[in-house]
Every structure is written in structure tokens, then in C-alpha cells.
Specification:
113 residues, alpha/beta, Transcription Regulator spoIIAA, five-stranded mixed beta sheet, globular
Length: 113
């Protein structure tokens, strides 16, 4: 298995901020996620923050915890959090933790308004 570095991309549309994650979302990536994504919450107020997991190849409990923390912040700060489901090992991590029962998850990202 080869290592795939964690990367974050951001696209902003009217009413939607789309954050694409790729590579491996593990304990080493959790702080980078927090530093880059938390500031986006202010821009998302009154709109949606979409976290796209489809390009991740791996996610451990640190990634799950980061998404749960972001969900808690969304409820406090008044923006909608939407997570686009991942595939393979990421889908398995979501299934094992029942994350999809706690966070709004979709198969495709919503279109910007």
C-alpha cells in the first residue's frame, strides 16, 4: 500500500462552500483539517458547508472525530453541514461507526444556489 498525502481543496459558490478531501484522513491530517476548515464556518453561516469524502482513500477515528466536532460546531453556529459519502475503506469506517446516522450524508454534493 502506498501513502497518499492528505489534501484539501475549497470551492465557493453562492450559498455553498465545498471542501474536497483527498488522500489519507488520519491523526496526522486532523490538525490540518481543523486549521483549514474551521475558518470556513464563518463564510458558511446562513448557507451550507459541504465536506466531500469521495477522494479519500483512508479515514481513521481521527477523521470521524473531526467530522463529529464540525457537526457540533455547525449546530451551534447556524450553518448546514453536509457530508458526501466516501467509498471503499472510508465507506466502511462510516458504516462501522454509524456516522451516517449522526451526520447528514448524501451521495452527491448539492449544487450551488
Amino acid at each position: 500500500m502506498t501513502f497518499e498525502p492528505f489534501a484539501i481543496s475549497v470551492e465557493r459558490g453562492r450559498g455553498v462552500t465545498l471542501v474536497g478531501l483527498s488522500g489519507e484522513f488520519d491523526v496526522a491530517a486532523a490538525e490540518e483539517f481543523r486549521q483549514q476548515v474551521w475558518p470556513l464556518m464563518t463564510a458558511a453561516k446562513g448557507g451550507s458547508l459541504v465536506i466531500d469524502l469521495r477522494r479519500l482513500v483512508f479515514m481513521d477515528s481521527s477523521g470521524i472525530r473531526s467530522l463529529l466536532e464540525l457537526d457540533a460546531e455547525s449546530r451551534r453556529d447556524g450553518f448546514e453541514l453536509v457530508v458526501v459519502r466516501g467509498t471503499g475503506p472510508v465507506a466502511r469506517a462510516i458504516e462501522l461507526t454509524s456516522l451516517d446516522e449522526l451526520i447528514r450524508m448524501v451521495d452527491e454534493p448539492p449544487v450551488a444556489q
